[in-house]
Amino acid sequence: MTTALSPVDLGLPEESLTAGRKDPAAAHVRARLDEQARVLLEHTEGARVGTDTEHVHQLRVAVRRARAALKADTGTIPDADALDAELKWLGGSLGAVRDLDVQLEHLRGQAESFDENEKAAVERLLEGLIAERRAARRRMLASFRTKRYQSVLHDLASAALSTPLAPEGEDEPEDVPLVDVIRKPHKKLMKDADNLGEDPPDDDLHSLRVRGKRLRYAAEMAAGASKKMKALVKATKDFQDILGDHQDAVIAEETIRGLLADQTDIDVVFVAGRLVEREHARKADRRARWRDALAEVDDAAKDVLS
Length: 306
Known about the structure:
Oligomer: single chain
Helix content: over 70%
Largest sheet: none
CATH topology of the largest domain: CHAD domain
Radius of gyration: 21 Å
C-alpha cells in the first residue's frame, strides 16, 4: 500500500506560500502551484478509497489550475513545458473517471421525475457506463501507484519553490505586473470566438469553453488584486458553466445513443428517448445564451486591463 505524502515530504513549508497585491506575477504563479500541490495531496487518498466522487473532481481541477498557472507564467518557471506534459498525463488518468461520474450523476438527475419502473429502466440503460467507470477507476488507481505520479507531485512542489528565471541575456527576472496574467488568455478567447460562425459546431464551442476556463483560472490566481478581477472571475465562471452544460448535453446524447446499441428492452428504449429530448432542449437553451455571457467576460476583462 502506498504511503500518503505530506507537503513536507515534497519539500514544501508547513505554511502555504502566499503573494500580495504588489507582488509580481511570478510570485502569484508560485503560490498557485503550491496551493494545487497541497490539494493533490489532500484528495489523493479519498480518490483511492472511492466513496466520494468529489475527491477525483478536486484532483482534476487542481491539475487544470496548475497547468493554467504554468501557462500564465512569463518564462520564470524552470522546465515548465516538461512539468505541463506530466500534469497533462495526470489529468488524463483522472479524466475518464470524472467524466463518467458527471454523466452518471446527470442522467440519474434527469430521471428524478420518472416513475419507479422508468427509473429502473434508466439503471439498466446505464449498466454499460457503470462498467466503463469501473475499468477507468482501475486505470486511475494504477497511475497512483507509479513512481511517475510521485514525481509529478515533487516536480510541482519544486516549481513552486523555484527561483524565478531571468530572460535570456538578463541578470534579473522580469518584474511582470499581476494584471498581465489575464492578457494572453483573454486575447486568445476573443480571437477564437471571433472566428466562429453563427452556428458553430459543438466541438468548436467545447474548444471555446476550454479557452474560457484558462482565463478563469488565471483570473482566480489574481482575484485578490481588485474587485474588478473578482468580477472577471464571476463572468468567466458563468460563461464556462453555460458552455459546460452545452458540452455535457452533447456527450450525454452521444452516450445514450451508444448505450442503445443492440438494446431490445422496449422500456429502456423509451426512457432513452425521453432523456435525449431533454438533452436537445438543454443544448438549444445554452446555444441561445453563450454569446451574451461571452460579452460579459469581454467587458469585465477590458475593465481590468484598462
